[in-house]
Amino acid sequence: MKRILKKTLMILVVLFFVLVGCSAPTPEPQLMQETAVAETVSVTETAAVEITTIPTETTEPFACTIAFDSDRDGNKEIYRMDPDGSNQVNLTNDPADDFDPVWSPDGSQIAFVSNRENETPGQFIYVMNADGSELHQLTYENGSEFPDWSHDGSALTYTSNGDIYVIDVDGSGQSVNLTNSPEKEHRSSWSPDGSLILFTMGEDQNQNIYVIDPDGSNKTQVTDNGRNHEAKWTIDGRIFTGWGWVEQEQFCNNCVVNPDGSDIREAGGKGMLKRYFPFWTVDSEHVECASLAFNDSP
Protein backbone atom coordinates (compact mmCIF):
# COMPACT_ATOMS: atom_id res chain seq x y z
CA MET A 1 0.00 0.00 0.00
CA LYS A 2 2.81 2.40 0.90
CA ARG A 3 4.58 1.58 -2.35
CA ILE A 4 1.48 2.39 -4.32
CA LEU A 5 1.03 5.71 -2.47
CA LYS A 6 4.68 6.65 -3.00
CA LYS A 7 4.42 5.93 -6.71
CA THR A 8 1.27 8.00 -6.93
CA LEU A 9 2.98 10.96 -5.21
CA MET A 10 5.90 10.79 -7.59
CA ILE A 11 3.57 10.90 -10.56
CA LEU A 12 1.78 13.94 -9.12
CA VAL A 13 5.08 15.78 -8.57
CA VAL A 14 6.13 15.14 -12.16
CA LEU A 15 2.81 16.36 -13.46
CA PHE A 16 3.08 19.53 -11.31
CA PHE A 17 6.42 20.53 -12.80
CA VAL A 18 5.24 19.73 -16.29
CA LEU A 19 2.22 21.98 -15.82
CA VAL A 20 4.33 24.80 -14.34
CA GLY A 21 6.70 24.60 -17.28
CA CYS A 22 3.86 24.83 -19.79
CA SER A 23 2.35 27.91 -18.14
CA ALA A 24 5.61 29.91 -18.07
CA PRO A 25 5.92 32.57 -20.84
CA THR A 26 8.25 31.69 -23.70
CA PRO A 27 10.80 34.13 -25.17
CA GLU A 28 8.86 34.46 -28.43
CA PRO A 29 5.83 36.26 -26.98
CA GLN A 30 8.15 38.64 -25.08
CA LEU A 31 9.90 39.58 -28.32
CA MET A 32 6.58 40.16 -30.01
CA GLN A 33 5.46 42.50 -27.21
CA GLU A 34 8.70 44.51 -27.43
CA THR A 35 8.33 44.77 -31.18
CA ALA A 36 4.76 45.98 -30.80
CA VAL A 37 5.88 48.74 -28.41
CA ALA A 38 8.62 49.85 -30.79
CA GLU A 39 6.17 50.04 -33.67
CA THR A 40 3.76 52.14 -31.59
CA VAL A 41 6.49 54.68 -30.78
CA SER A 42 7.44 54.92 -34.45
CA VAL A 43 3.86 55.63 -35.51
CA THR A 44 3.50 58.29 -32.81
CA GLU A 45 6.63 60.14 -34.00
CA THR A 46 5.43 60.18 -37.63
CA ALA A 47 2.02 61.53 -36.62
CA ALA A 48 3.65 64.35 -34.63
CA VAL A 49 5.63 65.51 -37.69
CA GLU A 50 2.51 65.62 -39.82
CA ILE A 51 0.60 67.65 -37.22
CA THR A 52 3.29 70.35 -36.97
CA THR A 53 3.53 70.89 -40.75
CA ILE A 54 2.48 74.49 -41.68
CA PRO A 55 1.10 75.03 -45.21
CA THR A 56 2.50 77.90 -47.35
CA GLU A 57 0.18 80.89 -47.67
CA THR A 58 -1.04 81.83 -51.15
CA THR A 59 -1.47 85.49 -52.09
CA GLU A 60 -4.58 86.25 -54.09
CA PRO A 61 -4.00 88.34 -57.26
CA PHE A 62 -5.41 91.83 -57.55
CA ALA A 63 -8.54 92.24 -59.62
CA CYS A 64 -8.05 93.73 -63.09
CA THR A 65 -9.00 97.42 -63.04
CA ILE A 66 -8.39 100.02 -65.75
CA ALA A 67 -7.20 103.57 -65.07
CA PHE A 68 -7.61 106.19 -67.80
CA ASP A 69 -7.96 109.94 -68.32
CA SER A 70 -10.96 111.66 -69.89
CA ASP A 71 -12.09 115.25 -70.48
CA ARG A 72 -15.80 114.36 -70.44
CA ASP A 73 -16.31 116.89 -67.62
CA GLY A 74 -14.56 119.74 -69.43
CA ASN A 75 -11.04 119.02 -68.16
CA LYS A 76 -8.91 115.89 -67.95
CA GLU A 77 -9.58 113.69 -64.94
CA ILE A 78 -8.30 110.26 -63.83
CA TYR A 79 -10.99 107.56 -63.88
CA ARG A 80 -11.09 103.94 -62.81
CA MET A 81 -13.34 101.23 -64.26
CA ASP A 82 -13.84 97.48 -64.54
CA PRO A 83 -12.66 95.72 -67.72
CA ASP A 84 -16.23 95.61 -69.07
CA GLY A 85 -16.56 99.41 -68.74
CA SER A 86 -18.74 99.33 -65.63
CA ASN A 87 -18.22 101.06 -62.27
CA GLN A 88 -16.51 104.15 -63.68
CA VAL A 89 -15.28 106.43 -60.90
CA ASN A 90 -13.70 109.90 -61.10
CA LEU A 91 -10.69 109.63 -58.79
CA THR A 92 -9.26 113.16 -59.05
CA ASN A 93 -12.25 115.51 -59.54
CA ASP A 94 -10.15 118.69 -59.71
CA PRO A 95 -10.40 121.80 -61.95
CA ALA A 96 -6.87 121.13 -63.21
CA ASP A 97 -5.88 118.67 -65.94
CA ASP A 98 -4.94 115.25 -64.54
CA PHE A 99 -3.68 112.71 -67.09
CA ASP A 100 -1.32 109.85 -67.99
CA PRO A 101 -2.22 107.46 -65.10
CA VAL A 102 0.07 104.50 -64.37
CA TRP A 103 -0.70 101.68 -61.90
CA SER A 104 1.85 100.59 -59.32
CA PRO A 105 2.91 96.93 -59.74
CA ASP A 106 0.78 95.77 -56.79
CA GLY A 107 -2.28 97.75 -57.91
CA SER A 108 -2.47 99.80 -54.72
CA GLN A 109 -1.43 103.21 -56.12
CA ILE A 110 -1.68 105.34 -59.26
CA ALA A 111 0.91 107.85 -60.46
CA PHE A 112 -0.25 110.58 -62.84
CA VAL A 113 0.64 113.99 -64.28
CA SER A 114 -1.19 117.17 -63.22
CA ASN A 115 -0.97 120.93 -63.67
CA ARG A 116 -3.16 121.64 -60.63
CA GLU A 117 -2.54 124.87 -58.76
CA ASN A 118 0.06 124.61 -56.04
CA GLU A 119 2.63 126.77 -54.30
CA THR A 120 4.78 126.42 -57.41
CA PRO A 121 2.71 126.44 -60.61
CA GLY A 122 3.66 123.93 -63.28
CA GLN A 123 3.27 120.31 -64.37
CA PHE A 124 4.29 117.68 -61.83
CA ILE A 125 3.76 114.01 -60.99
CA TYR A 126 1.37 113.04 -58.20
CA VAL A 127 0.64 109.71 -56.50
CA MET A 128 -2.63 108.54 -54.92
CA ASN A 129 -4.18 105.35 -53.62
CA ALA A 130 -6.31 103.24 -55.97
CA ASP A 131 -9.48 104.76 -54.49
CA GLY A 132 -8.24 108.36 -54.93
CA SER A 133 -7.27 108.89 -51.29
CA GLU A 134 -3.96 110.21 -49.92
CA LEU A 135 -3.17 112.19 -53.07
CA HIS A 136 0.19 113.97 -52.83
CA GLN A 137 2.77 115.65 -55.03
CA LEU A 138 5.89 113.55 -55.71
CA THR A 139 8.07 115.54 -58.15
CA TYR A 140 9.03 119.21 -58.14
CA GLU A 141 10.74 119.56 -61.54
CA ASN A 142 8.42 121.55 -63.79
CA GLY A 143 7.46 119.71 -66.95
CA SER A 144 7.47 116.28 -65.27
CA GLU A 145 5.80 113.66 -67.48
CA PHE A 146 5.76 109.99 -68.54
CA PRO A 147 5.99 108.32 -65.08
CA ASP A 148 6.96 104.65 -64.96
CA TRP A 149 7.10 102.41 -61.87
CA SER A 150 10.05 100.22 -60.98
CA HIS A 151 8.92 96.60 -60.77
CA ASP A 152 9.23 96.45 -57.00
CA GLY A 153 7.11 99.60 -56.70
CA SER A 154 9.75 101.52 -54.76
CA ALA A 155 10.73 104.12 -57.38
CA LEU A 156 9.50 106.06 -60.40
CA THR A 157 11.34 107.26 -63.48
CA TYR A 158 10.02 110.25 -65.40
CA THR A 159 11.03 112.89 -67.93
CA SER A 160 11.49 116.58 -67.18
CA ASN A 161 12.90 119.23 -69.52
CA GLY A 162 14.55 116.62 -71.72
CA ASP A 163 16.23 114.58 -68.96
CA ILE A 164 15.39 111.25 -67.28
CA TYR A 165 14.95 111.35 -63.50
CA VAL A 166 14.39 108.71 -60.82
CA ILE A 167 12.83 109.24 -57.38
CA ASP A 168 11.81 107.05 -54.43
CA VAL A 169 8.03 106.83 -54.19
CA ASP A 170 8.01 107.20 -50.41
CA GLY A 171 9.63 110.62 -50.77
CA SER A 172 12.58 109.64 -48.59
CA GLY A 173 15.17 110.98 -51.03
CA GLN A 174 15.75 113.66 -53.62
CA SER A 175 15.13 113.04 -57.31
CA VAL A 176 18.23 112.10 -59.33
CA ASN A 177 18.95 113.24 -62.90
CA LEU A 178 20.15 110.06 -64.64
CA THR A 179 21.04 111.50 -68.05
CA ASN A 180 21.85 115.20 -67.53
CA SER A 181 22.77 115.78 -71.18
CA PRO A 182 22.12 118.52 -73.75
CA GLU A 183 20.17 115.98 -75.82
CA LYS A 184 16.44 115.46 -75.32
CA GLU A 185 15.46 112.20 -73.64
CA HIS A 186 11.92 110.84 -73.76
CA ARG A 187 9.68 108.14 -72.23
CA SER A 188 11.71 106.07 -69.79
CA SER A 189 10.72 102.49 -68.95
CA TRP A 190 12.05 99.91 -66.46
CA SER A 191 13.15 96.48 -67.67
CA PRO A 192 11.22 93.50 -66.21
CA ASP A 193 14.07 92.61 -63.83
CA GLY A 194 14.72 96.24 -62.84
CA SER A 195 18.34 96.18 -64.03
CA LEU A 196 17.96 98.64 -66.94
CA ILE A 197 16.00 101.73 -67.91
CA LEU A 198 14.96 102.20 -71.53
CA PHE A 199 14.43 105.61 -73.18
CA THR A 200 14.63 107.37 -76.53
CA MET A 201 16.98 110.28 -77.18
CA GLY A 202 17.04 112.93 -79.90
CA GLU A 203 14.79 115.43 -81.64
CA ASP A 204 11.23 114.54 -82.60
CA GLN A 205 12.12 113.17 -86.05
CA ASN A 206 15.54 111.78 -85.16
CA GLN A 207 15.34 109.59 -82.05
CA ASN A 208 17.30 106.49 -81.13
CA ILE A 209 16.85 103.97 -78.32
CA TYR A 210 19.19 103.81 -75.34
CA VAL A 211 19.40 101.82 -72.11
CA ILE A 212 21.03 102.90 -68.86
CA ASP A 213 21.60 101.43 -65.40
CA PRO A 214 19.29 102.70 -62.61
CA ASP A 215 22.20 104.67 -61.12
CA GLY A 216 22.82 106.52 -64.41
CA SER A 217 25.89 104.53 -65.50
CA ASN A 218 26.58 102.41 -68.59
CA LYS A 219 24.46 104.28 -71.12
CA THR A 220 24.25 102.09 -74.24
CA GLN A 221 22.89 103.00 -77.69
CA VAL A 222 20.63 100.27 -79.11
CA THR A 223 19.50 101.69 -82.49
CA ASP A 224 21.36 103.93 -84.93
CA ASN A 225 19.26 105.37 -87.75
CA GLY A 226 17.12 107.86 -85.82
CA ARG A 227 13.73 106.42 -86.75
CA ASN A 228 12.56 105.29 -83.33
CA HIS A 229 9.77 107.04 -81.47
CA GLU A 230 8.30 104.16 -79.46
CA ALA A 231 9.93 101.27 -77.63
CA LYS A 232 8.67 98.77 -75.06
CA TRP A 233 10.10 95.91 -73.04
CA THR A 234 9.04 92.35 -73.78
CA ILE A 235 8.30 90.03 -70.87
CA ASP A 236 11.63 88.22 -71.33
CA GLY A 237 13.72 91.42 -71.21
CA ARG A 238 14.15 92.27 -74.89
CA ILE A 239 13.14 95.51 -76.61
CA PHE A 240 10.20 95.81 -79.00
CA THR A 241 10.35 98.72 -81.44
CA GLY A 242 10.21 99.83 -85.08
CA TRP A 243 13.09 99.69 -87.52
CA GLY A 244 16.11 101.63 -86.30
CA TRP A 245 19.23 100.11 -87.87
CA VAL A 246 21.16 101.44 -90.86
CA GLU A 247 22.26 97.95 -91.94
CA GLN A 248 18.69 96.67 -92.26
CA GLU A 249 17.87 96.26 -95.97
CA GLN A 250 14.13 96.08 -95.45
CA PHE A 251 11.92 98.20 -93.21
CA CYS A 252 11.19 96.30 -89.99
CA ASN A 253 7.75 97.37 -88.77
CA ASN A 254 7.86 95.48 -85.49
CA CYS A 255 11.29 94.33 -84.34
CA VAL A 256 12.59 92.59 -81.24
CA VAL A 257 16.20 93.22 -80.21
CA ASN A 258 18.45 92.52 -77.24
CA PRO A 259 19.32 95.49 -74.98
CA ASP A 260 22.87 95.53 -76.39
CA GLY A 261 21.53 95.92 -79.95
CA SER A 262 22.19 92.32 -81.02
CA ASP A 263 19.91 89.67 -82.51
CA ILE A 264 17.47 91.88 -84.44
CA ARG A 265 14.35 89.90 -85.34
CA GLU A 266 11.13 90.63 -87.19
CA ALA A 267 8.34 90.11 -84.66
CA GLY A 268 5.41 90.17 -87.08
CA GLY A 269 2.36 92.38 -87.18
CA LYS A 270 1.53 95.10 -89.66
CA GLY A 271 1.84 98.85 -89.73
CA MET A 272 3.99 101.52 -88.13
CA LEU A 273 4.28 101.69 -84.35
CA LYS A 274 2.62 105.09 -84.48
CA ARG A 275 -0.36 103.60 -86.27
CA TYR A 276 -0.56 100.24 -84.51
CA PHE A 277 -0.08 99.86 -80.79
CA PRO A 278 2.00 96.70 -80.19
CA PHE A 279 1.88 94.57 -77.07
CA TRP A 280 3.58 91.31 -76.13
CA THR A 281 1.21 88.49 -75.23
CA VAL A 282 1.23 87.14 -71.67
CA ASP A 283 2.86 83.88 -72.74
CA SER A 284 5.65 85.93 -74.43
CA GLU A 285 5.21 83.89 -77.61
CA HIS A 286 4.07 86.49 -80.14
CA VAL A 287 3.04 90.09 -80.74
CA GLU A 288 -0.45 91.49 -81.19
CA CYS A 289 -1.14 94.89 -82.74
CA ALA A 290 -4.27 96.88 -81.95
CA SER A 291 -5.23 99.44 -84.59
CA LEU A 292 -5.40 103.06 -83.45
CA ALA A 293 -7.08 106.02 -85.14
CA PHE A 294 -5.46 109.45 -85.41
CA ASN A 295 -7.48 112.54 -86.38
CA ASP A 296 -10.47 110.34 -87.23
CA SER A 297 -8.42 108.36 -89.77
CA PRO A 298 -8.74 104.54 -89.79
Describe the protein's architecture and organization:
The protein is an alpha+beta fold. The chain has a domain at 66-268: Neuraminidase (6 Propeller), CATH 2.120.10. 16% of the residues lie in helices and 32% in strands. The protein has helices at 2-23, 27-51, and strands spanning 66-70, 77-81, 89-90, 98-103, 109-114, 124-129, 136-137, 145-149, 155-160, 163-168, 176-177, 185-190, 197-203, 206-212, 220-221, 231-233, 239-241, 255-257, 265-266, 276-280, 287-291. The strands form six sheets. The protein has a four-stranded antiparallel sheet with strand order 4-5-6-7, with no helix packed on it. A hairpin with a 2-residue loop joins strand 13 (197-203) and strand 14 (206-212). The longest helix is centred in the first third of the chain and has 25 residues, at 27-51. The radius of gyration is 38 Å and the shape is globular. The N and C termini lie far apart (138 Å).
